[in-house]
Amino acid sequence: MAEPAASAGPDGREVRLARAEDLADPRLAPYTTLTDAALRRRVDAEHGVFLAESSQVVRRALAAGHTPRSFLLGDRYRESFADVLAAHPDVPLFTGPDEVLTSLTGFHLHRGALAAMDRPAPRPVTDVLAGARRVLIAEDLVDHTNLGAVVRSAVALGWDALLLTPQAADPLYRRAIRVSMGTVFRLPWARLEGPVAEAVPALREAGFAVAALEVTERAVGLDSPELEPLRSADRLALVLGQEGPGVRTETLEHTDADVVISMPDGVDSLNVAAAAAVALWELRAR
Ligand SMILES: C[S@@+](CC[C@H](N)C(=O)[O-])C[C@H]1O[C@@H](n2cnc3c(N)ncnc32)[C@H](O)[C@@H]1O
Predict the structure, then answer these.
(1) Does any ligand 1 atom lie closer than 6 A to the CB of residue 268?
(2) Residue 158 and which of 4, 24, 140, 285 are 20 to 30 A apart at CA?
(3) CATH T-level fold of 125-282
(4) What is the per-residue pLDDT for 64?
């Protein structure tokens, strides 16, 4: 027998999704096309949302004060999410069997829960820098997994803020959030209006030493005593380069120093998130 059409649950706030046709509800628009990052950027901006994925990440977003617009929950996860639902009785809840949710989201919803949340207003760079001693600059980092891993390390190693170039990935893209394990909600971040080179004078003016993490001729080894002034700098901004090309030449022309993690002959580079983890520890504020 065919499943009944979408229906409201006993508490009036729940909509049970049973068939593909039920997915026409406009409130479900933020949940479509989850796997296409470029499309997502447009969908998220259009609807002013970001998506938190997995029960843990949703909880962290809520704990950080983000406002849920709706929840989408696989039937199996209902019980383990009951406390969240009880704490937000007015937020619409969409539930359904796995196959229906998969046809909506474009991927298997194996982590149980998704929440569409209001996207916070962009923060000004000056706001994010206020009081920060250690700031990471993601120059054109386009990979959401790398960005999420970088954010996780930055928070775990006590860095205070993140700046991104206009081309860099979105820290609030579903996958970046999940790889960061929701730590992105603890890290103040802002987007620069232009290239890093243009931001360097203002950073210097604010008392930051500006260094690039990059394999260059002039780079100083991360473990070198020569790096002591950078290690003990009161304020430090560290630029990470794009996955393929690395830190832009124009940026390197403006930084105070380049820092390299020495590698054996024949090895070109580390993954940017791995390199960041090593350097963030060594250059942390003390
Ligand atoms: C994968 S690398 C870019 C490609 C690299 N320029 C190359 O030619 O192989 C991405 C970023 O990771 C960081 N990185 C990777 N390995 C590094 C190392 N050994 N020392 C310093 N930075 C490194 C830099 O910030 C670099 O821009």
Answers:
(1) yes
(2) 140
(3) Alpha/beta knot (3.40.1280)
(4) 97
